[in-house]
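Hi team,

As requested, here is the filled-out complex form for the magnesium ion run. I kept the field names the same as last time so the parser does not choke. Let me know if anything looks off before we queue the next batch.

— J.
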Amino acid sequence: MHTDVLPTTSTELHAHAIETAVTLLRNGEVVALPTETVYGLAADALKSEAVLKIFEAKGRPRFDPLIVHLPNLQWLERVAKVDRDAQQLVEKLSTQFWPGPLTMILPRQEIIPEIVTAGLNTVAVRISAHPTFSEVARQFDSPLAAPSANRFGRISPTAAQHVLDELDGRIPLIVDSGPTVHGIESTIVAIRNGRIELLRRGPITVDQLAPFCQVVVPQPTQHPEAPGQLPSHYAPSTRLVVAEAISAFSPSPNQRCGALVWSTDIDPVKFAMIKQLSSRQDLREAAANLFRCLRELDQSNLDLIVAEKLPDEGLGAAINDRLERAST
Ligand code: TXA
Ligand code: MG
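And here is what came back:
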């Protein structure tokens, strides 16, 4: 299969890319699209055969459920059951954070095929704020299932080239709208027993959620509901270790070691390659650069990558979570 890459750099190109994507989706094909977090691999969420193609292209095990992206809020109650005690909270969260990088896990409606939820009785839903994704969803006018557009277990793509590197020849189309804004995957919360359970840290931080409701962070476990919550996930091929402070770390002699760093006072002679996440010490910039830097280090024939822990608060905690998973 040939993989087309269509840019959206002018009004005409944008319109053409969207039309091509919508036509393919209507024909039951998969399409890689930018979202505000990472690139996603989308298919018609209500068509099992189309969703199956996502699992095939990614090499994703069938027991790992997908996020359903809605064209608008009217779709929420068609795909998910919002019972009375959850209703107020769901309304507040959707008003505050949608469209945007928050995914809510809710009891599912029958309309969602089993393959999407991997047999769970819940469904993950969000509404993307990306102009390309939301326009495709609007024109398609039906929910799109879309996981991150990488091979299973690998780092999520934050640029069209990353998708091409992993899925060239396996999907018909990648819509290229440049690098993504947030750079890490959406925050995932389950609304259960009147509380917010934080299942995956992301661009919407605990501090942003706390005013709405008590937020609980379940302990990491080897037996989560969904494999995306496994401690080891999102890994580069090169071995990666996390260091509390890069200044205290010394690679062994003859070891080609790369460094992914937050601090600015780093000894350049120790490392074969250094990637600085944010020279301005800005966590948002660090998140946006994270996966690209990890990919570049991973492609540089290193024996080891050492990643420095970030301040463990807000977005820093979400980035540290990705580093921990990349290190196992
Ligand atoms: O930012 C994002 O969320 C991106 C963009 C494309 O929207 N998508 C994304 O999807 O990261 P994915 O499939 O790579 O990660 C979704 C995670 C997986 O770990 C999956 O196991 C979990 O969500 N998940 C999906 N449905 C679930 C459910 N019903 N219960 C618990 N976890 C669920
Ligand atoms: Mg993923």
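Two things worth flagging: The mean pLDDT is 95. The CA atoms of residues 221 and 230 lie 7 Å apart.

Thanks,
J.
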